[in-house]
Amino acid sequence: MATWNDVRRLAGSLPETSEELSHGHASWRVRGKGFVWERPLRPADLRALGDRAPTGPILGARVEHLGAKEALLGDDPDVFFTTPHFDGYPAILVRLEKIALEELEELVVEAWLARAPKRLAREYAEARWPDQNH
């Protein structure tokens, strides 16, 4: 089970990341662009989800594109979900208490890579995965 401390540690370990408050909730940014954030469900979300509305902490995360979002939704609907608010937007919602730590790390890094400037993302990827072509 992942926690906000895990998110804070993982996001904070990425280059040029800052933690800020956005609408009273934690948000992590790379050069001013948000990549993961605390996202409690709003009344409209609760109405849209009905009985399927999860309880517990919810993490919002950017994804590279809508295809990646659909893949996550299909791969593990117990962990990943969305609301009408995010229709057409490359972001996913995550039941923080249900995601494995290894999967959370991958999600946070991928979110960061999707929002970081290309050069910074390339430098990070080359340092982290030196044997792969980038």
Report on the structure:
The protein has 134 residues and is α+β, with helices and mostly antiparallel strands. The protein has one domain: Aspartate Aminotransferase, domain 1. The chain is built from 5 helices and 6 strands. It has a 6-stranded antiparallel sheet with strand order 1-2-3-4-6-5. α1 crosses α4. The chain is globular, with a radius of gyration of 15 Å. The mean pLDDT is 95.
Briefly note the structural class of the backbone: alpha+beta
Strand line-up across the major sheet: 1-2-3-4-6-5
**Which architecture name does CATH use?**
Alpha-Beta Complex
Number of helices: 5
Q: What is the number of domains?
A: 1
Helix share, percent: 25-40%
Outline: globular
Strand content: 15-25%
How many distinct beta strands? 6
Quote the distance from N terminus to C terminus: 32 Å
Mean pLDDT: 95
Oligomer classification? single chain
H/E element sequence: HEEEHEHEEHH
Query: Any idea what the radius of gyration is?
Result: 15 Å
Low-confidence stretches: none
Query: Mind telling me the CATH class?
Result: Alpha Beta
Helix and strand arrangement:
Blueprint: H1 4-12, E1 17-22, E2 25-30, E3 33-38, H2 43-49, E4 58-62, H3 66-75, E5 80-81, E6 91-95, H4 101-115, H5 118-128
Antiparallel strand pairs: 1-2, 2-3, 3-4, 4-6, 5-6
Brief rundown of the structure:
The chain is α+β, with helices and mostly antiparallel strands and 134 residues long. The protein has helices at 4-12, 43-49, 66-75, 101-115, 118-128, and strands at 17-22, 25-30, 33-38, 58-62, 80-81, 91-95.
